[in-house]
Structures are given as C-alpha cells and as structure tokens.
Design brief:
The structure holds two protein chains of two kinds.
Chain A: H1 8-12, E1 16-17, H2 23-31, E2 37-39, E3 43-49, H3 55-68, E4 71-79, E5 86-98, E6 102-114, H4 118-127, E7 135-139, H5 149-152, E8 157-160, H6 168-180, E9 187-190, H7 191-194, H8 197-206, H9 210-214, E10 219-227, H10 231-245, E11 250-256, E12 262-269, E13 272-277, E14 284-291, E15 294-301, H11 307-316, H12 323-334
Parallel strand pairs in A: 2-6, 3-4, 3-7, 4-6, 7-8, 8-9, 10-11
Antiparallel strand pairs in A: 1-5, 5-6, 10-12, 12-13, 13-14, 14-15
Chain B: E1 21-26, H1 31-46, E2 55-60, H2 66-80, H3 87-94, E3 97-101, H4 107-124, E4 129-134, H5 141-150, E5 162-166, H6 174-187, E6 193-196, H7 203-214, E7 227-235, H8 245-251, H9 253-270, H10 279-292, H11 298-305, E8 306-312, E9 314-316, E10 319-321, E11 339-345, E12 355-361, E13 368-375, E14 395-401, E15 405-413, E16 421-429, H12 430-433, H13 441-451, E17 457-458, H14 460-478, E18 486-490, H15 497-504
Parallel strand pairs in B: 1-2, 1-4, 2-3, 4-5, 5-6, 7-12, 8-18
Antiparallel strand pairs in B: 6-17, 7-13, 8-11, 9-10, 11-12, 13-14, 14-15, 15-16
The chains are: A alpha/beta, B alpha/beta.
Chain lengths: 336, 513
Amino acid sequence: MSASTLNDSDLGRLGLETPISRIDRALKQLWEGDEAKTRASLINLAIYTEDSSLLASDNDLLDHVAAEHACRALLILALPESQPPRARAWIQALCRPYQGKQAVCSEQISFVLEGGDAAQVQNIVFAHLDSDLPLVVWWQADLTQHFEERFYSRIDTLIIDSSRWSDPAKQFDALREAMSAETADFDVRDLAWTRSHFMRTALASCFQDAAALQKLAALKTIRITHLKGRRTTALLLAVWINQRLKTSLQLELIEKDSGPALQSLVLEGDGVRGEVRRDCDSSFINVCTSCGQHEHKDLLPADVDSDAELVSEQLSRFHGSTLYSSMLPFVRSMLK
Amino acid sequence: MPELENPFQETLLSRHRAEPCTVVIFGATGDLTHRKLIPAIYNIAACGDLPPQFKVVGFARRDKTDEGFRTELEEGNRKNSRQGHNDELWGSFAQCIHYHRSEFEDLEGYKALGCLLDQFDVERGAPANRLFYLAAAPEAFKPILEMIRAAGLNKGVGDKWARVVCEKPFGKDLATARGLNAVVADTFAEKDTYRIDHYLGKETAQNIMVLRFANSIFEPNWNSRYIDHVQITCAENLGMEGGRGGYYDTAGALRDMVQNHLFQLLTLVAMEPPTDLSADSVRDEKVKVIRALRPLVGPEAVGKNVIRAQYTAGSVDGVSRVGYRQEDRVNPESKTEPFVALRLMIDTWRWQGVPFYIRVGKQLPKKATEISVHFKKPPQVPFATSTMLRNSENTLVIRIQPDEGIALRILCKQPGQAQNVQQVKMDFRYSSSFGKASPEAYERLLLDAMAGDATLFARRDEVENAWKFIDEIEHAWHKSDNPPTMHEYPAGSWGPKEADDLLRADGREWRLL
C-alpha cells in the first residue's frame, strides 16, 4: 500500500498536524486556557492498522469509544511498504458534553508511519502513552513480524477481530504462540467472539427452561446462520456450545449476504428444540424453547453490533477469561 | 431427580445470576412501584439481566385487570425509566406483569395468590423462586407477613426459596422494630429477609469499601493517628412538597435519615476490614461500629452533642419558602426536626478521640450528600502563614450524590520565587471517567435480592442497634423534663448557628459544600 492511497480529507479529520517531537507541547497548548474542558483518562487505547482505508472509520470509532471510556487514544496507521520513509502526527481532543456547561475530553494522537519497521511502531506507541495507565491495543492488521515479543509483552489487553483475518488458521497459530510466550501477560479480547455474546446469553436463557434442561443430552445438531465474513464467529460459538455440553454436535453453517453477524442459532434433538433468532434491524432477539407440548418464548435485548460498540463493551469488562484461550485449539482444528 | 445445572450459564457472567423468579409487590398501586420498582425491573430487562421466565405480580386492594395495571405502569415507566422506554421491549416485558386484587388481611386473597404462583410454575415447567416485596405502608407489614405465613407462601416450593424485601421505615423506634422483626422472623428466616436501604445501592456507597480496602495508601492512615474528624452531610434543598409533610412530621430527620441511610454510610467509613465479602462478614463489621457508638443518654448529653432545628421562612435558589410549621400537612405546633446535626464518638481503638459529625436537613441551599475525611495537619508547616491555609488539612471527599466522585485536597507550592503554599484539589468524577450511567440503586438491590446476595441489605441486629442508639436521643427530646432546645434556621441557610457552634467548640467547622 502506498502513501498515495492516503485520502487528504481523512487526514484532515485527524485534527491538528504536529511535528512528532512537539506532540507533548502541542497537547499542553490544546488544554491551556480552556477551563470549560476537563481532561480525563483511564486507559491508553491504541489502534494499529495497516489499511489506510480504515483511517476515517477508526477515527470515528475512537470518538465513540472515548465518549464512554475516557482514554489517551493512539491511532497508528503503518504503511511498511511505502517509500520514502516518513512519520507524521496529528493531535485532537475528543469531547463530550458534561452537565450542560463543561466538556469532558480525551486526547487522541494519530500517526501515519510510512516505511517504518516494528521498532519504529514500538517507539512511537511507548513514547506517547499516558504513564501508569493500562495499555489496550486493538491490532487490526495480521499478526506479522510487527507484532513481536517486545511489543506484546507491554500490552495489558489485546483486542483482535479474528473474522477480519485473511488466513485465520495462520493467525490463530501466531496468536497462540504470542499468548504462550513467557513474557506475555495480556488478555485477549476477540471481537469475533464478543459478537456471539448475546447468542450465548440467549441460549443460556433458552435452556433455563426446566423441561428443556432435562433434555440437553438429546441434542444432536447445531445450525448457525451467519453473515458472510463472520464464519469465525459462528465457529467460535459452535466450539463453545460443544465445550459446554462436553460433546460434539453435528454442525451446519448457513451463510447469508446481509443482516446481523449472527442471525439464528438452532439446537435440536429428539423432542427438544431451542432457537435464538435475531431479525434484521431489530435490537431484540427472540428466544423459543420447545420440548414436547411445552413451549416457552421470550424477548431479550440484542447486544451491540458495530465495532465501536463492541470495543466499548470489551473495555467495560475488566476481568480476563481463560475460556477463549481454551477454545483456540478446537477452532484451529476446524479451520484445517 | 437431582436438579441439573444449566451448562450455558457458566462462563457468561461476572456476577451471580438470578434463577427464574416471581416477584410479588405488596402495595403495587403506590408511588414506589410506579416510580422506582417497575422502572428498575424494566431496566434490568433492558440490560438482559432479568432471570428467564420472570414474573411480577402487583398485589393491592384496588380493582384492576392485568391490562389496566400494565397500562398504568407503562405510563410510569415512560416518565421514570433510566434508559428510556422502548415499546417493543415493553410489549414483551409487560407480559410478565400481573395484578392480583386482595385486601391485605384477607387470607383467601393470599391463597388465591398461591394458586396464581403455582400456575406460573406449571407454565414454566418447574417451580421458581418467590420474592415478596413489602412496598406497602409500614402498618400493613404485620398483617401481610402473617397472611403470607398462614397461606403457606413463606416456604419455597421444592428446593426453591421464598424471600421478603422490607422497605423502610423499618419501625419507628426500637420497640416497633423489634416487634416487626419478630413478625418477620416468624415468617421468614433471617437469611431470607432483605431490609432495603437504597443508599447502599448507590455506586459511590459501594465504592467506599473498594476505596478503603483495595487501595493500600488509605487504610494505613485510616485511624485516629492520622484522621482528625469525619463529616457526613446530607443536604436537601426541598421541604415538604408533594404532601410528604404528613409522613415526615411523624418521623423527623433523625428517624427518617440518620437511623438508616447515614448510619449505613458511617459504618462503611468506620468498619474494620471484613474477613471476606460475604454478606455476613461485611454486616458483622458494620454492626460492630453501631454497637461501639458512644451512647448519648439524658438531655444533657443529647443537648451537648445533638442539635435539632426547624426551618423558618426564607428562600432557596431565590424562591421563597415557608417555615416548617407552615408546610402542608405539618402540625403548626410540630416538635419534629427537619434538621439535625450530631457529634458521634466511636469507642474503638481505631477511632478513639475522632469525632464523626453528621448533619442532615431540609431546605438547605443545595442538594448534596457527601462524606469528608479530614486528616490531621502535619506537626509543623514551615512554608507560609497565609490565612488561606486556615483549613488546610488534607481532606478526602466522597461525593455520594449528585456528581458522584472522590476528591482529595492537598497542598502544593505556588509557582514563583516565594515558598507560598496553595490548596489544590485532585478530583475524580464518575461521570467524566466512566461514560456509562450507573444503574439505579433499586436495580442493583432488586437483582441482589433475586440472586441471594444480602451484603447491601441491613441485618436485624444492625437495625435494632441503630434504633437503640436513636431512641435515647428521641427520649431526651420528647420524654424528658428539660428537653434540649429546638433551634431555628432560615430556609436556604446551612442550618442553625448552634450546628456551627457544635464544631466550633471543637476548633473545627463544617465543610463548605
């Protein structure tokens, strides 16, 4: 990808272009003399991408996330193949109104790094963190040599979206290797997995029905309808179901060209059926459990869907989980 | 058949999830149900945290259909729901709402309620837990509890539980609280009794324990060696609007606020670290604080340590206000206090010699509840003698409402050649740092009651010991031959001069909120 693919209007939205060596001074000036703004920060949130077409949407995403999670936001667009090498930076305040008069603001520093290497990315990130605050990185690119030990050993939370990976099998291997490194101590939050949260919650609700619960052992099949490009989410969901049931149900995946990432989940067996369905444009999901003559229906809120909302949701969950890592070998085997 | 665990529940939640449950609200046509309880349950549903196959039954005297009841509640929800009102969600949620008409003293009505609950269980395919919420007037608690017992509804079906949630006021003195506790104990075990105090459901109240016990910098200083005194203020800028004078004039600030809400805050500030976070470990430590309060016995001790007052005509925010005795539904000869300030001592090693000043009042200049912990001054401050430093001790302020947060006042050097020292404030605001709105106190407390976590509910001994302490003061005020004076303050001021004198006598003053 070359620098020429950079869109001037996208760059213009990043705020005030500032020489990298003067970022701290420029940030200070940004706040000086404006008593109506309160600066707040609880985390460092960095987005790393190698796709210049994502610059505008990532910029919007940070604006959305910062409204709920006060942060020092870093947006890094790395274009390793681009020549000649050049590094540019922009600063801006992400503000939201507070009590009518004041604005609560987070800082965003954006970088476009052309022709740089892994060390340059690390230096840039580590030089501009708000000290003592946790570092959350959403690594949007593939886990290549830029994602290396000296970098991930400093990360507290790594956000990925495995459904974006062009070669999921290879990327899952790279992820597992990083997670098993001696110095790695980061939580992994996979947005592909987060997207299934509402389905999992609804499924739990489905089988809270006493009659259906008694028939769990009779379940035989899983049928998941998902949006094209969200196969990993469907696979992760299927692995989770099999793990929970300690079995291996027959899996059928149905791909659709439009609609929500996950559209329906049906578990079926002799005399028992649990269905979770989310219709297009609905913020709710329909849950239906049938067991012989007995039928139970419910309406539950659907989880958020956009990347910004998913990231925001993840930042609200500070507890890590070993569940995801325990599923990786199974997902990896299904990708063979 | 042994009960199966739902394998899909595990791994999903960071908190204990409630199992299928029916909530029965007694006094369902009242203000609390419309303004707080149903909007709280609706918001729990909107967050997806409501247990599956949930039902709520409104129990009251008036004749209504399910549909009529739902329509009334919908109106209340539109006005009061924290997350707004969604017609689609309400449409589904409303199906779980039912109405049951009965007199509180009519056993047949309770038997019919039992049949309705059984019918729900049949529809569910299994028995569910039952939570009885007493939102009726306190005088109705006794007949309701007796009828619940007589109808056999106080026992869960199979291995399911039956619990009761009691709204405040829990008694009006020690004798009535004990009487009520006895009735409750005849019907429900203490572990199934949840006495609600909505202050404990507030995010900042819950944060007091986290602040104290998760931060190593505070706890070593949290004692009489480093803390000079503690102030707890609960100010309201309203009077007796909306007809509340009728109830309030029978209670007063001491019974209405201090015995429950402010004592709960006091115990959270003063308690020893619990051995764990189980409900009883936390409540064991809280009750020790109440027991250690130095009793104020007799009019002299009460007069010296407690200031009561009524407001006279004045203005708040530029709006004229009548005096307390001129308020709607207030006795013109009333001896009830809408303001009280107390100096309390806690006789423990940790708090020896550290006064806790509490004040609560109506028609004060602003609405605010906060705790301020005033640290001792260093033995010597060699820098400056400015009058600006008169009240320059480090102060940790925990704002309960509004603008929830924590502030720490410290001293810093002013820029310049001279060694001038200036107070600065490090301020943490929940709303600035966490964009998401906190759940309403009732949402948290209802979910806790459904999930069986009693940590944020008052235990019997807590309530009775608090009343025991309060009764001595009430006795000195109303039953002694030489009762302490009822002072006055103009509406819109920070209370009577005598409340200021209470601290001034100790060389201190109230924090300016």
